[in-house]
Amino acid sequence: MQEENCSHKWEMVNVVQCFIGTEKCNHCGKVVSFSTSEYNPPHDEYREGDHYWTIMDTAQSIRFELRCTDCGKLVKYNELLGLMMCTGCDENCKVNALMRELEPERTWIYVAFGYLPIDEVEQLSAEKIQYLEDYYNQKRRSMHSRIKIVSHEMVDNIFTCYAEVIKDANLLNMPSG
Predict the structure, then answer these.
(1) pTM of model > 0.85
(2) Residue 171 has pLDDT above 60, yes or no
(3) Strand pairing category for 146-151 and 107-114
(4) Does the chain have fewer CB atoms within 10 Å around its N or its C terminus?
């Protein structure tokens, strides 16, 4: 089946367990994020040029791609760091407004966010966000609710957002093998 005529039935493929981390430079205040498939994520402070990096947070996660089981289209998610579930923390936030608007339809709002700093690295396209949303909604067993995924661009300041980051914080380490 040709891609342009396909209604896409997505499956998650090429899943790699990893750690996601956020670090901050104590010298200039810059915040960056990363993912690593190393068994033990970095925890030590280090210097790189003029930067003095300190790890702020790490958690287990996964990296993945989506593939259509009908047409074979493969979508890579190299730009995706994670998803955050909106908790309605800021009355002035566009995501919160959307959540309130869609609440009667039993719609959960998630924010797709990429690597930091946002303005220095490629972020997810609207098309990739839509494919991700389609994937999660096709897997939902209940027809009484759905998931809406939006871009981080709807959040005024990602650093002050209290949304719940979807992560594996309770796991101690990745399985070997």
Answers:
(1) no
(2) no
(3) parallel
(4) C
Instruction: Rounding to the nearest 10 degrees, give the CA dihedral for residues 64, 167, 34, 161.
Output: 120
What b/e string do you get for 1-24 counting C-beta neighbours within 10 Å, with b at 16 or more?
eeeeeeebebeeeeeeebbbbbbb
Extended strands (E) in the chain: 10-25, 31-36, 46-48, 51-68, 74-76, 80-85, 107-114, 146-151, 164-165
- Token duo for residue 7: 């209604």
Using CB atoms within 10 Å of the CB of residue 161, give its burial: 0 to 12 exposed, 13 to 18 middle, 19+ buried: buried
Please tell me the distance from the alpha carbon of residue 145 to that of residue 104, in angstroms, as a whole number. Answer: 10
Taking Cα atoms as reference points, which of 115, 110, 70, 103 lies closest to residue 86?
110
Q: Is 86 exposed, middle or buried (0-12, 13-18, 19+ CB in 10 A)?
A: buried
- Mean pLDDT of the region 22-27: 93
